[in-house]
Amino acid sequence: MSIVHVTDATFDQEVRHSTVPVVVDFWAEWCGPCRMIGPSLEELAKEYDGKVKIAKVNVDENPESPATMGVRGIPALFLFKNGKIVSNKVGAAPKAALKAWIDSAV
Q1: Where do the TM regions start and end (predicted)?
Q2: How far apart are CA 52 and CA 4, in angstroms?
Q3: 105 inside domain
Q4: Taking the complete model, does pTM exceed 0.85, yes or no?
Q5: Is residue 31 annotated as a catalytic residue, yes or no?
Q6: What range defines the domain where residue 24 resides?
Q7: How far is CA 21 from the centre of its chain?
Q8: Is 79 assigned a catalytic role?
Q9: How many domains does one find in the chain?
Q10: Minimal CB count within 10 Å: which of 14, 19, 61, 100?
Q11: Catalytic residue among 6, 22, 31, 98
């Protein structure tokens, strides 16, 4: 499974009503660290296929969702389980650290 691109309009459906845990990456095209973790998130989306959904929200195109979450800096990663935030982290991290973070929360 590949990364799901979520908008303000699809956020509740894709994230809050998901039957599997969801990692949401709030990012922007101009953000260097966001682009740095992109390939790792692509790989993790394949590795966790069917177990964890990886979603991306472009903060420039969808200002509502990050504002609701209180996002101050990007990349901001939130892990949702049963529609609720169970963990979050800000900033880029290597793939191994992202995987460990996801594993500890699910």
Answers
A1: none
A2: 11
A3: no
A4: yes
A5: yes
A6: 4-97
A7: 10
A8: no
A9: 1
A10: 19
A11: 31
